[in-house]
Amino acid sequence: MEKQFLVMNPAGIHARPANAIMDKAVTFSSRIVLQKDAKTANAKSMVSLLKLGVKMGETVTVVTEGEDELEAMAAIAEILQSHVD
């Protein structure tokens, strides 16, 4: 499953949102990847997420694969579209 999201957090995906994404991602058995341009990040790795360098207003693609991919997609989407400080 693949879907694009506009990042709404004023600071982009910095430490706190990256931590929130990682904390949620590890609860799923599915593979969860975020993509920006030619870069990809494992959603279960905070360092990987921070290396994407995503800023507010940029679009990221979320790819989920596995038995709970729908739930994983919904959970990550909620974080990306929120304003986690």
From TrEMBL:
<feature type="domain" description="HPr">
    <location>
        <begin position="1"/>
        <end position="85"/>
    </location>
</feature>
<keyword id="KW-0762">Sugar transport</keyword>
<dbReference type="Pfam" id="PF00381">
    <property type="entry name" value="PTS-HPr"/>
</dbReference>
<dbReference type="GO" id="GO:0005737">
    <property type="term" value="C:cytoplasm"/>
</dbReference>
<keyword id="KW-0963">Cytoplasm</keyword>
<dbReference type="InterPro" id="IPR035895">
    <property type="entry name" value="HPr-like_sf"/>
</dbReference>
<dbReference type="InterPro" id="IPR002114">
    <property type="entry name" value="PTS_HPr_Ser_P_site"/>
</dbReference>
<protein>
    <recommendedName>
        <fullName>Phosphocarrier protein HPr</fullName>
    </recommendedName>
</protein>
<dbReference type="InterPro" id="IPR050399">
    <property type="entry name" value="HPr"/>
</dbReference>
<keyword id="KW-0813">Transport</keyword>
<dbReference type="GO" id="GO:0009401">
    <property type="term" value="P:phosphoenolpyruvate-dependent sugar phosphotransferase system"/>
</dbReference>
<keyword id="KW-0598">Phosphotransferase system</keyword>
<comment type="function">
    <text>General (non sugar-specific) component of the phosphoenolpyruvate-dependent sugar phosphotransferase system (sugar PTS). This major carbohydrate active-transport system catalyzes the phosphorylation of incoming sugar substrates concomitantly with their translocation across the cell membrane. The phosphoryl group from phosphoenolpyruvate (PEP) is transferred to the phosphoryl carrier protein HPr by enzyme I. Phospho-HPr then transfers it to the PTS EIIA domain.</text>
</comment>
<dbReference type="InterPro" id="IPR001020">
    <property type="entry name" value="PTS_HPr_His_P_site"/>
</dbReference>
<dbReference type="InterPro" id="IPR000032">
    <property type="entry name" value="HPr-like"/>
</dbReference>
